[in-house]
Amino acid sequence: MIIKSGAIDRLLQEHPNLSERRFGLPEIGGRMDGDSFNPTVQEIADAIEYYGFDVRDEEITTVPDIDLGSGNPTKYPPFPMSIEEMKKSLDSLSMYKYPYTEGADEIRQVLLDYVEKEGFINTSPYSYDDIDAKGLCVHNITFLPSTSIAFNMIVSIISKPGDVVLVTGPNYGLFTIRAERAGAEVEFLPLSKEENWLVNPKKLADKIDQINESLQTVYNRRKGYIPRVVAFVNANPNNPTGKVMGEKQADLLKEIGEVCLKRGVFIIDDLVYRDLTFNPNNLAKPIATIPGMFRNTISLFGLSKSYGMASLRAGFVVADEVIIRELINRIFQGMDSAPDIVGRALAGAFNTLPERDVIYQDYFSKLRKIYQEKYQLLKALVEGIDSIQDANLKASITKKIKDVIVDPLLQEQVLKGLPYTKFPENLEPESGFFAILDFTKVRGMKYKNMVINSERDLLTFFYRTYRTRFLVGQSISWPYPNELVGRVTFALEDEKIISALSQMNQSLQLLVPGEDYIIRKNLEKDQAQMARIKIDGWRTAYDKIVASKYLNSLDYDTQTQRYLSSFSEYKDLVFVAVRDDEVLGYSCFSYLETDDKYDSELVSLYVKKEEANRGIGSALLIETAKELLAHERHNMIVWCFSDNLHAIGFYEGLGGKNVETKQALIDDQYYQEYGFYFDLETVVQNSFK
């Protein structure tokens, strides 16, 4: 008999990540086809992973943190008609029966009546006997647990390997990951401040055409087809901007619909925040209500965000019968069916009963007012109490803040607003419960030995000081890469909002002005200066260490050409410290193979002689360590000449341990080198001391 390892041992060998408990967000996962995410989507996944798990410390099980990144709606009673329908279901004698995969026709008819009342119309209907006057029937609808599951299935239905799903930036980051995980590729359509963060149909058309033309040019046709853009995800209202396209923007929506229809691109119309539109006279308008657009549109509705029922996980899809048929097949193959009680809850919320209008108006008029007041509270905490124009509201908010914060000095500080922080231009939310905070002014500022250069630095800083976290711009595809932003919720209880922003305020008070330089990735224009710094560094540091013949042979122009010729290959592996356009120093690193003893290397680190002893070298090494950590590396080796006492002292001072010795051949001579080992997490941790 062949003796094999135990089942659990074998599983752990294949999935070593399961050997430790994980607190916080579960792993993001990868693509179902085994391929890697495209680099932009991987950055989103890394940013969400950092927010949900990596930034948190070992004390999380006993000392709670403050999560401003949550997607939970505010604490508010669930929609009463949904509760009543679920109670009826539980009180009935039919719970013993398995539900139909597609859902009960009586439930689907209720949902159909609702969407038709909202204006859904199919102007190119099929000829089946059950098609109604609007060109629709119950076979245009199915429901299942959450629109997220529906989205996953829809992407897998409409796309083949290489096909592209186009999303806006900003967006709901997890949808971009889910689209790629389902097998599609994701591309981004940046929204802009100047266009009020709304979709520009001309830019949408150009983007689709550009992607399709690129795919036609480069794709190998061995698989018998050329990939194309298959869907555009239209979140309306948008998460996280809160921007709404309603009846007032009907012409814009029609243009968006026509752009996609003409190019054979499905619109996935995500309407889960629709009923949280602050202006009830301009609710987000479904594109499927525009004549001619129904068959090209896949509409998503849900209970989670608007109806106070996130824990139930309930959503439904309205689409062409062909889409619904395959969606039902996938439901059957994967989960057999959605719980009947999910459908009952949906029918309780989305129906045409006369009493629904009265209950709906009462429920949402109060809920919208709560969110608008919470946003005003957030605004006062960010921009200062004087930003509130209404005298009564200003007095009310002031009282709330003083009731939570008892220290008079802290009260005064908080009432002035968050230092260095603002809302982005043209981005006051019109729906939902998210706001974007712009922290760009803190770039380059310091906390202890840590310089804030990136959004990851920003999140680390807030967490290490007062244990506050939120989603950074990278998580939501923020379209302005030079800005440091965060998405925060204002759905929390008022006391928690005040406490969280108070602690962020105290964190920001700890910052001090940074140096007169910044650290960034190198640019092509930097190469000549970098070449000069390297050669000058060798001639200075290695005088009497390396043969003078070799040092004298070094040439600025030759080194510059070497750097320029390899720039495209190494551009993401070099940091430079710059003052205006002057390069003061640089570091170059590499990723080593995973089976090596070390998983990364600091290849070189040079600082101008005139800028020595200013901490630039330390700052470059720390920035390199942070970058490597962000790419799942844990340690780093650095080699230096055994006679270079200055470098040895520098590396030891930053925590490096001399663990290796080797002989390096330079020109025709061998020189002894020491290898210094760095634990990257320790390097970054020490920057806070």
Quick structural summary:
The chain folds into three domains: 65-74 and 359-509, Aspartate Aminotransferase, domain 1, CATH 3.90.1150.10; 98-352, 3-Layer(aba) Sandwich (Aspartate Aminotransferase, domain 2), CATH 3.40.640; 518-686, Gcn5-related N-acetyltransferase (GNAT) (Aminopeptidase, 3-Layer(aba) Sandwich), CATH 3.40.630.30. It contains 22 helices and 21 strands. The chain is globular.
Q: How would the blueprint of this fold be written?
A:
Elements: H1 7-14, H2 39-54, E1 66-67, H3 80-91, H4 105-117, E2 141-144, H5 147-158, E3 164-169, H6 173-181, E4 185-190, H7 201-218, E5 229-235, H8 250-262, E6 266-270, E7 297-302, E8 315-318, H9 321-335, H10 340-349, H11 354-383, H12 391-404, H13 408-415, E9 434-438, E10 446-447, E11 450-451, H14 455-466, E12 468-469, E13 471-472, E14 485-489, H15 494-509, E15 518-521, H16 527-541, H17 548-553, H18 556-565, H19 567-570, E16 574-579, E17 582-591, E18 600-607, H20 616-630, E19 635-641, H21 645-653, E20 657-666, E21 669-679, H22 680-686
Parallel strand pairs: 1-12, 3-4, 3-5, 5-6, 6-7, 18-19
Antiparallel strand pairs: 2-8, 7-8, 9-14, 10-11, 13-14, 15-16, 16-17, 17-18, 19-21, 20-21
Helix pairs in contact: 2-6, 3-10, 4-10, 5-6, 5-9, 7-8, 11-15, 14-15, 16-18, 20-22
